[in-house]
Design a protein that fits this description.
The protein is α+β, with helices and mostly antiparallel strands. The chain contains 2 helices and 5 strands, in the order αβββββα. It has a 5-stranded antiparallel beta sheet with strand order 4-3-2-1-5, with no helix packed on it. A hairpin with a 4-residue loop joins β1 and β2. It is flat. The N and C termini lie far apart (84 Å).
C-alpha cells in the first residue's frame, strides 16, 4: 500500500510540476511574486501539532506585514552580493557596436522601376 501511494505522489508531482522549496531564514530578502514587491522574511509561522506550515510573515518595503505561502516567495541574493557584482562589472563595459551595422542595398528588381 505504501509503495502505491509513493508512486501516485511521484506521478502527481511530475505531472503538476510540484517541487520542494528550500526553507527561508529570518531576514532573507525575497521577491513577492503576486505583489511584485521586495520584502524581508520576519518569521515562519509555527502551529501546535505541526512542525512547520508553508506560510511566512514578510515585511514589505513600505513596512506592512503580509503572510504568504512559500510558493509566492522567491529568494533574492544578498545586498552585499549585488554590490560586489556591480563593482566587478564596472570595468567590463561592452564596446560600441554601431560600426557593425549591415549595409543596406536597394533591391535589384527596383532598378527598372521609374
Amino acid at each position: 500500500m505504501k509503495i502505491a501511494k509513493e508512486i501516485q505522489k511521484r506521478n502527481y508531482d511530475k505531472r503538476h510540476g510540484a517541487k520542494e522549496h528550500k526553507e527561508l531564514e529570518k531576514d532573507d530578502r525575497v521577491w513577492i511574486t503576486n505583489e511584485k514587491k521586495e520584502g524581508i522574511v520576519k518569521r515562519q509561522r509555527i502551529r501546535k501539532g505541526r512542525q512547520r506550515t508553508r506560510s511566512y510573515l514578510v515585511e514589505t518595503e513600505n513596512g506592512n506585514d503580509i503572510k504568504r505561502n512559500r510558493y509566492h516567495l522567491k529568494k533574492l541574493p544578498d545586498k552585499d552580493m549585488d554590490s560586489r557584482i556591480e563593482t566587478e562589472n564596472k570595468g567590463t563595459e561592452e564596446p560600441n557596436n554601431q560600426a557593425r551595422k549591415r549595409k543596406r542595398e536597394r533591391p535589384t528588381y527596383l532598378n527598372d522601376y521609374c
